[in-house]
Amino acid sequence: xxxxxxxxxxxxxxxxxxxxxxxxxxxxxxxxxxxxxxxxxxxxxxxxxxxxxxxxxxxxxxxxxxxxxxxxxxxxxxxxxxxxxxxxxxxxxxxxxxxxxxxxxxxxxxxxxxxxxxxxxxxxxx
Length: 126
What we know:
Elements: H1 10-20, E1 27-28, E2 33-34, H2 52-74, H3 79-91, E3 93-94, E4 97-98, H4 116-125
Antiparallel strand pairs: 1-2, 3-4
Helix pairs in contact: 2-3
């Protein structure tokens, strides 16, 4: 882990990201978005990466992709898949696959919980 002094401006942040991307895992902003995902040239980084709103949008979209990769492996959305998706987000891999550069797996199969009121009503009649 490389600790650097906090940058004083968005421009300083991007300069710092450009310096270390490719040499270290660089997490940027509130979502710790992995800088370099989909970037082939460090000059492509923009200050949008450190804009709070844009960083949240980008980070949420990328986490959604990671979650879909993990739930596809599990076959359905469940708590264990969510926990593993968080681990995969932090590690950048799941089951030996780079989750950030992996192909989009498509929609997640969601299995809904039984209606709680219906379950309670049945248990009262038993």
